[in-house]
Amino acid sequence: MRFDQKASFYHENASIQKKVADWCSEWIERDCSQFTGLELGAGTGLLTKHLALHGFRDFCATDISQSMLEEGRARLPLIRWEKQNAWQIGSRKADRIYACSLLQWAKNPNEVLSQWRQALLEDGRLLICFFIEGTLEEFGRLDQRFHAVPWRCESEWIEIFRASKIEILRSETRSDVVSYESPRAALRHIHNIGAIGENRMKPYELRRLLEHSESGQSGSFDLSWRTMRVECRASN
Ligand SMILES: C[S@@+](CC[C@H](N)C(=O)[O-])C[C@H]1O[C@@H](n2cnc3c(N)ncnc32)[C@H](O)[C@@H]1O
Fold first, then answer.
1. Helix H or strand E segment including 102
2. Pocket residue to mutate for ligand 1, from 102, 107, 189, most atoms within 8 A of Cβ
3. How far is it, in rounded angstroms, from Cα 4 to Cα 228?
4. Count of the separate structural domains present in the chain
5. Is residue 1 part of a domain?
6. For a FRET experiment, which of 87, 93, 104, 132 has its CA 20 to 30 Å from that of 1?
């Protein structure tokens, strides 16, 4: 992923992530005045701006990327922003932990979820939203190597939560289709928001993939995004 390099483009271009953050925000409890809140991978603040309205006793938005933190701080200066690796959160504790459009990037989601569970104070909850299998499938169908992460389906995620000793209180999925003027425009958009993996295809392979997706295509090009939102707590 290249979020650090693309931080200044992210906010204006992350249209699907904005939709997903708005969707995730529907499950934020109305009155959070009794809670300490921690947001991981907060980026430029697409979910943070919702969290900021819920009156937390104490709240901190975090990200691993310095340039994302600067973008977030500039947009929401009254929020406390801190650098934090979401995969190694150490001894941090909170009543409520949030992460939107982040977890799909974890190489070992079991380990990450176990850490997040351990960071919850008594009666604590996690609200997490992430992309699942079905995302970018139009490109993946042509070449599986296109995918920056191994997409997992809903049932695989449910099993990962269970194995991490996390009880799901409620979960839901959604599907979105974004229309681009061409496959090339779609790919440019994904690159512009930094949502690309480390094991990228070689340029000539990407070119071939684009040629394949453009052949027979007339009019707009539709790209799928599939998301899951989960509210959960440590299981007994
Ligand atoms: C797709 S963006 C999502 C940002 C924001 N939550 C949103 O909904 O728009 C992913 C964010 O996670 C951050 N990130 C990636 N890996 C991280 C890690 N290990 N620890 C903390 N943040 C991370 C990136 O810097 C980026 O800001």
1. none
2. 102
3. 24
4. 1
5. no
6. 93
Task: Please state the pTM of the whole predicted model.
Answer: 0.94
> Which residues have CB under 6 Å of ligand 1?
1, 3, 14, 17, 21, 40-43, 46-47, 63-65, 68, 85-87, 100-102, 105
Q: Ligand 1: which of 64, 66, 87 to mutate, judged by most atoms within 8 Å of the beta carbon?
A: 64
DSSP assignment string, 184-236? HHHHHHHHHTT---SSPPPHHHHHHHHHHHHTT--S-EEEEEEEEEEEEEE--
Give the domain range for residue 105: 7-234
How far does the centroid of ligand 1 lie from the alpha carbon of residue 2, in Å?
10
Poorest-pLDDT segment among 61-70, 97-106, 207-216? 207-216
Q: Identify the CATH number of the domain in which residue 34 sits.
A: 3.40.50.150
- Residue 118 inside a domain? The answer is yes
- CA pair distance 176, 224, nearest whole angstrom: 6
pLDDT tens profile 147-181: 878 899 999 999 999 999 999 999 999 999 999 98
Residue 29 lies in a domain: yes
Helix axes 203-214, 183-192, angle to 10 degrees: 140
